[in-house]
Amino acid sequence: MNYLENRKYIIQAIFIAVGVVFALRLFYIQVVDSSYKQAAETNAIKSVVQYPFRGLIYDRNGKLLVENTPVYDLMVVPKETKDLDTLRLSNLLGLPLEDIRERLKKARTYSYVKPSIFYQKLTTQDFAHIQDNLIDFPGFYINARTARGYSHTSLAHALGYIAEISPKQLEDSAYAGYRPGDYIGKSGIELEYENYLMGQRGVRHIMVNVRGLEKGSFKNGAYDTLSVAGENLYSTIDLDLQAYGELLMNGAKGSIVAIEPATGEVLAYVSAPFYDPNLFTGKDYGKNYMELLQDSNKTMFNRPIMADQNPPGSIFKLVQALIALEAGVINPNTKYACNKALVNCHPHPSPLDLYGAVQHSCNPWFFQAYKALLNQGKSPNTFTDTSLGLKSWRDHVLTFGFGKQLGIDLPGEKKGIIASPELYDRVYGKNRWKYSTIYSLSIGQGELGVTPLQMANLMAIIANRGYYVTPHIIRAVGEDGKPLKEYQERHYTSVDARHYEPIVDGMAEVVRAGTARRANLAKVGIEVAGKTGTAQNPQGADHAVFVAFAPKVNPKIAIAVYVEHGKWGGQSAAPIAGLMIEKYLTDTVTIKEQEKWVLSRKYLDIKSK
Amino acid sequence: MPAEQTISKYKIATRSSRRTSRSILQNLDWPTVLLYFLLVALGWMNIYAVVYSPDNVVNILSFDINSGKQLLWIGTSAVLIIMMLAVDYKIYEHLAYPIYGLIILLLLFTLAVANPIAGSRSWLDLGGGIRLQPAELAKFATALAASKFLSSVNLRQQKMKDQFILALITLLPPAIIILQNETGTALVFGAFILAYFREGMSPLILIIGASAAAIFILTLLVPKLYLIIGIILLMGAAIWLDYRLRQRLKSMAALLVLIVGMIFSVDYFINDVLQPHQQNRIKALISPEADPLGYGWNVTQSKIAIGSGGFWGKGFLEGTQTKFDFVPEQSTDFIFCTIGEEHGWIGSTVLIVLFLLLMTRIVKIAERQKSVFARTYGYCVASIIFFHFLVNIGMTIGLAPVVGIPLPFFSYGGSSLWSFTVLLFILLAIDSNRAQDLSR
Hints:
The structure holds 2 protein chains of 2 kinds. Chain A is of the alpha+beta class. Chain A has 24 helices and 20 strands. Chain B is built from 18 helices and 2 strands. Chain B is globular and about 70 Å long. Chain B starts with a helix and ends with a helix.
């Protein structure tokens, strides 16, 4: 037994011998032989993020609306910086020493081991100069990515802009794929179509030696992911028409929205005052943004879809007439006298039928037609009767896309206001209001708020004789793409198609011989149908409105022009619409006197009086 | 009289069982328990270091990554420990054969029904994403059965029949495991030789085995002609020095023929018996430089990772080589690279010392057992851990061929951690009751 027990020493000796051999071998590999350290250094892997090419945006004729330009960011990994010569870095970047220290501190606070942006958007010249000197600044490197660029100065409100993702967004799980320093759409199309435009980030693993020199890709790129470029977008905008619209609105405040009626494609989208989209791409983005935001003209206010507090004025008479026809309370030959005791009017022949009433925008006529519509005697109580009438009227109005978001592919669209029995019950009390309280609705005043986009959409509805396709600004995602499904279906109004013809005839008379003769294009053989409007405004001169479509038969363009403080639609808004229509349909402008008038801005002088 | 006897027996039983639960904790070998938890905790941290990426920091506890899952295995191992300490320690000896039989059936069953995973038919799918590798369980089952058998015979009596039965008990499981294509795990059963040696097996077997391994490796390293000439010279010198050998020239000649035959058969063995991936592992051991991107990849990268650690290491989570899957099986079989890179020679040596402490402690525990069964089982435990230690660390530093077996308590993986936990704590359970064995 005892001699066997001695074997425990042999066994333990074997254990210890192996342990000693291991320790010696490890000492040789790890301490004596330095070739493994060198091998490891040539083996170091750096992962380089491959920023995807953000999708481009084209106009309807294939012109580039949004492109990409390369920019270079100086990155730093605090852990890798060694013997940093801050003075030299300060000279190199042309920044005060204090600023350099501040930036380093910020980078360290963010992460000691992760790269962060040290200096954003170097110019191309700076880039070349700094790149040459970077070898002496370990831990610093240049990251190339693309920024947005524009070869024109138009459409800033609709295009939107991109900027660095905010810390708040980064915390949101909806933005899980983003990292600090990533760029993301902040407004307009850039925001709305972010998911399509952004593409997919890739990571490239490269082997680098101690000096940071690339030694080729790691494992032939087996772990690399390719960046996938974002989808290109094809816009419905006609850049030439857009630029012309901006020229016409330069110096004014207001909107132009032009739509192709059959498809709902937005042809022009002017929000005045406007700004150059290039202002938001350079490194002065922050400064420019704050300036525009604080501007007293509310430049950043996206008027075509956000200005919903203004009553539409006389253009709403078209809606009232259509609903009255559908309800059967009038017919095209119904005549009413221009009784100025009911509501004020301007001089014109009287009495008028429907055509004349539209042509001359006779206020008392619509007072009476609307009364006939609201008070149909469905209840002996006049209060209840009005309430019932208003409810039924409102249901009709909603089918025209008023009082709700139309659903354009731009963020921030407002709903507008359409009067309702509930609203008046709240204001006046139940059974405390009747037609004489709310009659101003008949002429488009009162508790009505309509965005310029909704006005243009109304023109598309009348041009189509009864339906609209939701206005949209992108008609295809990707080369062979189609519009999103929601932009392919027709929305019919509650008014039958046959009731539209008399209205269209009346509108043609408005332009031919009525209040909007400045939009007349008979000279070039285009029959325009339109309607002027004036929206009362407590803060100064009235706002001028003109809506139109052309040609009268088989219309190609529907347009709404809204000029704040433009006083009369026929004077300021109608010529702009006429010019836009001619420009779009014929690609030339022959009504030079109108162009001269608009560009002289004389109509705006009225406002300053 | 008989009734009184029964009562007093009962009293003793209750007293002893009350004492048991207290004495288990009192008599538990705490140094071993401490070493166990130290190794498990260090392993867990290194598993996290493998998956850690500064670009995408995931919480160490997240179940999406291995470290989080390993924590689950550690927790379940703790439950296993409590169970094994709670069970009557005698059950391991009594049920040694039934457990062994059951595991043999399970191995056969697995071989029959398992879907191959990476060529291996050793995994039993339990459903719900949980898989079990019965080959891991075969280690402790075989250790139990072999110990039980040895406690019933005296190996020194060298009865052929007994030796044959012992060989059968030891070699049956690895034979099935080889069929399952888990050669690495099967090799572990060779470790039992150490335990048998302690129980009286002739040292000749150890010496012959070691010599055969030496000749095998020399054949690969040295041209055959030089090797044969060297062996002839060596033998000649031995005969010249020791006159007794001159009377045995015939046996010496026979030995020479045997060795030369073995040298030539090594070639045949490597080229015709071994599978290509096994050939490559041997080639990688001899000259990994020959094909650093092919079969030499693992060994080369593993040595680079360890070698780049230097004396002090790069620091926890600071390793660059151990990320990016430079070496496949980073958190399982090649976990030692992470230690080598991030904790340097100091850290690697500390780990080696921890293992040596554990293994010698187990030997000490084995030696203080009063029953042959318990002692043999203790040696089996030490031998199995030693074999894993030898081959696993050996392969990462280029001293052993790449054999896919984990580092005990340290590598990622539930089956491995469970099986080593069971293996070790059966011994500790038996050990903590050794006082009762004495009184028996």
